[in-house]
Design goal:
With 417 residues, the chain is mainly alpha-helical. Helix content is 76%, strand content 0%.
Length: 417
């Protein structure tokens, strides 16, 4: 059963990649792939109905499929709206000079925005920084797939250590270790991702600085005000989410209204701004991704695959890396990967004071490797859609940073395992 489930999931993913290669829209491709996975895994409408009903009874509202679909769709569509609003008001045009005037380095400026926004771990949140990165990169002539890779990679650097990511306290509780211990080992993964990402994505492919790239010679206070005017809606959304637990879609809607009012944008032009929310393919993309996830969860395929691999007597180092990598690759999500694989890996890692944290770091590096190269990871197809570039081109640019993190994980296992 494990072999069949593994092959079925891989076929569904292969169909997704093939459809994208033939220029089929991302939303349609994802939906077809999800339907194929459901058919091959024997998931019928009645099974889906029972799974959805069980979600409503056993999970918090914010973790149910219906809530995720509504909240993610609203967030992504409203991100388009705020991007258009910033352009119409003129904030986007002033953002790049402001960042360069404050930080001087164009490369640092490109990485800084997603790195800062990565501290807000909301599903689909990659779209919060996407308008800024795209506009900044377009101003200096950076190729779109590189911009998408920069936005994706630097946004996800805090995932091993930032406690707002549910996987971090989950690992801590499963292993019975302190938060400081986990941080001290996992921070090397974050450092490796930033270092290799900087070398691969920022040291190359950035056009030479030209006179028109120089920021306007203004007092630093003006640059700071332009930066605040452009960045406050995102910061406002983040604060509402972190401090008051208000959904990002609600926060960004309030920010859009506030932005239009503060800058006295004519009411008669508001409808033209909100027309940017008419993106049916993006709605299909969210639906298809959640449908794919629901199918493999309902069928029990992930558990079957994990059982199959664990019974094949793989070498411990290989098993520690491959199990999390495989599950994160097939699901595109972090916390379920930890919940599914770590109970099997505890036999090798240990718990409490006996925990071999080098082994655990290797396992988490496998999770990150799979997460950064899978087309199922919602952030990747969303990036391809928003930056209007090839999904494969983005993935190819993230392979080397992902490999660097995997190698660091292997070194941690060798020296501290």
């Amino acid at each position: 059963m494990g072999v069949y489930a593994l092959v079925s999931i891989m076929i569904a993913l292969a169909v997704l990649v093939t459809l994208l290669r033939f220029k089929v829209k991302i939303g349609v491709s994802m939906l077809i792939s999800a339907c194929l996975a459901g058919v091959m895994l024997g998931v019928w409408p009645a099974d889906l109905g029972r799974a959805l009903a069980e979600e409503w009874q056993t999970r918090p509202l914010t973790r149910t499929t219906g809530y995720l679909f509504v909240s993610l769709t609203a967030l992504l569509l409203l991100v388009n709206v705020i991007g258009v609003a910033m352009v119409e008001i003129g904030l986007s045009q002033r953002l790049v000079p402001a960042i360069q005037g404050l930080f001087k380095s164009r490369r640092f400026a490109l990485a800084l925005i997603p790195l800062m926004m990565g501290m807000l771990p909301t599903p689909g949140g990659i779209m919060l920084s996407a308008p800024m990165v795209r506009d900044a990169g377009d101003k200096i002539g950076v190729e779109r797939s590189r911009l998408a890779a920069i936005n994706f990679l630097f946004r996800h650097q805090w995932e091993p250590v930032w406690p707002l990511f549910p996987a971090v306290p989950l690992v801590q509780n499963l292993l019975g270790i302190s938060a400081l211990t986990l941080f001290c080992y996992h921070i090397v993964l974050t450092a490796a991702g930033i270092l290799v990402g900087t070398i691969v994505l920022l040291m190359f492919g950035i056009p030479p600085k030209r006179p028109e790239h120089e920021p306007e010679k203004r007092h630093v206070g003006y640059h700071l005000m332009d930066f605040i005017n452009a960045f406050w809606p995102i910061l406002f959304t983040a604060v509402l989410y972190i401090v008051f637990d208000i959904p990002p879609a609600v926060g960004i809607f309030i920010a859009i209204i506030g932005l239009l009012l503060i800058h006295r944008f004519p009411f008669k032009r508001w409808p033209s701004i909100f027309k940017a929310a008419r993106e049916p393919d993006m709605v299909l993309l969210i639906f298809g991704a959640l449908f794919f996830k629901l199918n493999i969860e309902t069928s029990g395929a992930i558990g079957d695959v994990v059982d199959f691999l664990s019974k094949m007597h793989f070498p411990p180092y290989l098993l520690l890396f491959l199990l999390p990598m495989l599950v994160s690759f097939t699901t595109g999500v972090t916390t379920p990967t930890v919940a599914i694989t770590y109970p099997f890996l505890i036999a090798f890692i240990g718990t409490g004071d006996e925990a071999k944290m080098g082994f655990e770091t290797l396992a988490f590096s496998g999770l990150l490797f799979g997460l950064w190269i899978t087309p199922v990871h919602l952030c990747l197809p969303l990036s391809a859609s928003y930056f209007q570039t090839s999904l494969l081109k983005i993935i190819l640019k993230t392979v080397l940073p992902a490999t660097g993190v995997a190698l660091v994980g292997a070194l941690m296992a060798f020296f501290f395992g």
